């Protein structure tokens, strides 16, 4: 099972995500880095473990702002061995294709940013696209047809439980089981609530392909030794 660290970008800094309440996010304080500069935080994460993939949520872009294109380009240049998975709120075919043409990484299409199935349909054959199914509590954020019509899902799907991000409540195992059962063999990634190595073992046993994690890495609940054992 893959472990993918998460970096949330807001105002040029890495912020600490908590329960999806984005207006309250503040610059991260972590023992892995001095300050909250993206390159410093990522360097600290890679010092903990040689992660091959990193998930980046460009929160300013998701909110409709200008985003962090220059920051992402700098990170890609500094860390060429890392494959970046980026959610930048792409909501149109033109925006998605434009990003894929400019960047070598993987574009994450967040369901909360989609108005319908048009972007997924247009990019059905694009291997560098991942779908994030975004949930807040029991509510699905996105068009109902996107959740219902599994045939439109790409080969990799994230089950994102925003209310559990940074909250220490544990993964939403019931929802993950539901999504995995419906995914028709697609790789399902868990996001939100992972606390420690025991959670990772539980997710791996449930057939989860990978997990997105941040707080447990910065808090030391998941250290390099635990990650090495999993690898």
Q: What's the short version?
A:
This protein has about 230 residues and is an alpha/beta fold. The chain has helices spanning about 40-50, 60, 70-80, 95-100, 120, 145-150, 175-180, 195-205, 215-220, 225-230; strands at about 1-10, 15, 25, 55-60, 85, 105-110, 130-135, 140, 155-160, 185-190, 210-215. The mean pLDDT is about 90.
Molecular shape: globular
The largest sheet is: 8 strands, parallel, barrel
Number of strands: 11
Arithmetic mean pLDDT: 92
Spatial order of the strands forming the largest sheet: 1-4-5-6-7-9-10-11
N- and C-termini, Cα separation: 8 Å
What level of helicity do the residues show? 25-40%
What's the alpha carbon Rg, rounded to whole Å? 16 Å
Give the helix tally: 10
Q: What structural category arises from helix and sheet content?
A: alpha/beta
Q: List the uncertain runs.
A: none
Give helix and strand order, one letter per element, not per position.
Answer: EEEHEHHEHEHEEHEHEHEHH
Strand content: 15-25%
Name the descriptors.
8-stranded parallel β-barrel, 231 residues, alpha/beta
Can you tell me about this structure?
The longest helix has 11 residues. This protein has an eight-stranded parallel beta barrel, surrounded by four helices. It is α/β, with parallel strands linked by helices. Strand 1 and strand 2 form a beta hairpin. The chain is 33% helix and 25% strand. It contains ten helices and eleven strands. Among the domains are: 83 residues, no CATH class; 42 residues, no CATH class. The model has no long low-confidence stretch (mean pLDDT 92).
């Amino acid at each position: 099972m893959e472990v993918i660290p998460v970096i949330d970008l807001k105002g040029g800094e890495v912020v600490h995500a908590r329960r999806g309440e984005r207006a309250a996010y503040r610059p991260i304080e972590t023992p892995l880095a001095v300050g909250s500069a993206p390159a410093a935080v990522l360097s600290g994460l890679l010092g903990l473990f040689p992660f091959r993939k990193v998930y980046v949520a460009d929160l300013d872009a998701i909110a409709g702002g200008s985003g962090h294109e220059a920051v992402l380009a700098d990170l890609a240049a500094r860390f060429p061995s890392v494959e970046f998975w980026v959610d930048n709120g792409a909501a149109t075919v033109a925006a998605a294709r434009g990003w894929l043409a400019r960047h070598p990484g993987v574009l994450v299409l967040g369901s909360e940013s989609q108005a319908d199935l048009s972007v997924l349909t247009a990019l059905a054959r694009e291997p560098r696209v991942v779908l994030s199914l975004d949930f807040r509590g029991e509510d699905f954020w996105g068009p109902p047809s996107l959740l219902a019509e599994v045939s439109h899902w790409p080969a990799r799907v994230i089950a994102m439980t925003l209310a559990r991000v940074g909250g220490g409540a544990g993964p939403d195992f019931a929802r993950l089981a539901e999504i995995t059962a419906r995914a028709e063999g697609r790789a399902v990634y868990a996001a939100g609530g992972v606390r420690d190595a025991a959670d990772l073992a539980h997710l791996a046993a449930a057939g989860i392909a990978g997990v997105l994690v941040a707080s447990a890495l910065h808090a030391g609940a998941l250290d390099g030794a635990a990650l090495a054992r999993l690898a």
